[in-house]
Amino acid sequence: MYLLAHLKDLIEYKELLYNLAKKELKIKYKNSALGFFWSLLNPILTMLVFSLVFVVIFKFKGIEYYSIFLLAGLLPWNFFNASVMGGAGSIIANSSLVKKVYFPRELIPISVALASLVNLFLELLVFLVFIIVVGFLSPKYFAVFKFLPYLVILLPILFLFSVGLALLVAALNVYLRDIQHIITILLMVWFYASPIIYKIDGMVPPKLIPFYKLNPMTDIILSFKSVLYWRHAPNLNWVLLSLFYAIISFLIGYAVFLRLEPDFAEEL
Amino acid sequence: MALFPVKGRANKNVKGTAVTAQGIWKEFRVYHEKNQSIKEIFIKRKRAEYETFWALKDVSFAVKQGITFGLIGENGSGKSTMLKILAKILRANQGTVEIKGKVSALLELGTGFHPELTGRENVFLNGSILGLSRKEISKRFNDIVAFSELEQFIDSPVKTYSSGMYVRLGFAVATNVDPDVLLIDEILAVGDEAFQRKSLDKLYELKKQKKTIIVVSHALSSIAEICDEAIWLDKGEIKAAGKARKVVATYLREVNRKEEERSDNEDEERLATPGSRRGSGELQIKSVKLLDGRGKERSIFKTGDKLIFRMEYEAKQPIEKPIFGFTLYTRSGVLCIGTNSRIFGLVPDKLSGNGVMEYEFDKLPLLGGEYELTVVVHDITGMHIFDSHDKKYHFRVSAIDNSDIGLFKTSGSWRMS
Lengths: 268, 417
Prior knowledge:
The complex is a heterodimer of chains A (268) and B (417).
Chain A: H1 2-12, H2 14-29, H3 37-57, H4 66-93, H5 95-98, H6 107-137, H7 144-147, H8 151-175, H9 178-193, H10 209-214, H11 216-230, H12 236-260, H13 264-267
Helix pairs in contact in A: 2-6, 3-4, 4-6, 4-8, 4-9, 4-11, 6-8, 8-11, 8-12, 11-12
Chain B: E1 17-31, H1 38-44, E2 50-64, E3 68-72, H2 79-86, E4 94-99, E5 103-106, H3 119-129, H4 134-148, H5 163-176, E6 181-185, H6 193-208, E7 212-216, H7 220-226, E8 229-234, E9 237-243, H8 244-272, E10 276-278, E11 283-291, E12 300-302, E13 307-320, E14 323-330, E15 335-340, H9 341-344, E16 350-361, E17 369-378, E18 385-398
Parallel strand pairs in B: 3-7, 3-8, 5-6, 6-7, 12-18
Antiparallel strand pairs in B: 1-2, 1-4, 8-9, 10-18, 11-13, 13-16, 14-15, 14-17, 17-18
């Protein structure tokens, strides 16, 4: 109930949320000549590097159109990564506001996630252009468009999960600045522990598969891959499990944040 | 020392109360060494050591709708902390705050601006923080810019602003967003005089519109002038509350008393040390003579006598625009007169070699007592001191019969009609 009352407040602050997210994007690309294109360049370069390693060097042939396979998992991961990393330092980065004016502090990490969401949308647009190009070589990939509406369910789940974790680390980082550094390392491990650059079936040793069930990102990534690469509806179990993880993440993150929030100004 | 009865709780049910603070306690921790890294926590296996002190101890007050309310007190008395609690920036350990309506706060040096954003972007950001829609802010935007006088700079990042510009924009935003309650900390201490005047006018305007305003300030005269009511905080406790003029007067009396005690103590120390000399030395005051009307050196004068301070100087190199000045103190350290040649309008373009500078009292206004003289020569800014003889010269003004009392002879006259 306590959380619900707060959520209602957030709706009243939608104008501010919009301004804060806009500010995040502006500051991110200020003083950079290519500006917004950097956010597109990043996944494209990552894709090229991994394609080179897997397809050219390892001569890996098990996955058709590896680049699409990779991007289908990389884009949601990048969003998650940016939201959590950005969230971790967000309160400190905005200390000039936090120490001077009152507004619900949770708007800060949420606005960071919103800014990342804008990036994700742009990346998805580029991804779809890529799908069209590939579609001319192999028309079956046009079917991706048929399954796109599933993103309406998957994106909110991904957003909720990421925001929950972002709120948690944002609040903890005010008290313990090491969190930011720990997060960087954890996220790297987490990236390789999630089926983004590889698939589970036929690649992961069977002994390790149970561990993947413990990783909340597995279900989310697999759901995105179903839609964006395999061209079929995501497994209902994955979706429900992701939703469950997302709600847990959000509730814990938000509860911890609200508990620590009132003393931010004093700690900064 | 109870000055006004303030112990009773603020009455919560006063009709039209805009702000209520009830039994506010606030504790601060002073860390000896702030540890915020995991390594230290694990290695030392404890949180950092700290001491606590109470910045506010059971502070209660109520501010009626539409009045202007002042918080006064020395540095560290808790007044700024109180304002931050009202603004919801800090959380009180105990007690409740209730505010009716939209709050706009201007805490120490400007509102929350993001340094990387331009003035324009910050205005919109701040407006939305205070709950205004884009349209509402656009409507007020021109007023805000005009008031802040930052037309040329509104599209530069605020990190390039001077502190004065920062405060001007902050004040313009905070006062133009139509708040119900306005909280202001020390705004009148910054900005040039013209802007201070303008800010005060704006406050009066808001006051006329029956906005509730809470001000923290050192500028006691402006508190007494603009505030209807005030409280005086001393070490976190309310020492006086009531009509602003009365509270300020009470506070001033206390400050003066303390000041006197302090200067008495300093006196004893000072008398033990003879006058000192300092300065960079490019221009030196070689000698100082106290002369009477006939050019004779003396150390005792009478009120109304002619008195000349004659300073012989030597410039080791050409000095541009030097300023000569002097100050007169009583033995107990009260500053009687301080003036210089720039105030008088005499600023030589360049000085070199030896020469003489004189100041002449046609009629010495000082009444009987012992006086100490400091002479100084510095550059036009007053920042660079060439030579200063601090309280090196003494003279006495002998008390004459049937005289005024105090420091100065008045030039006024009595009349009967």
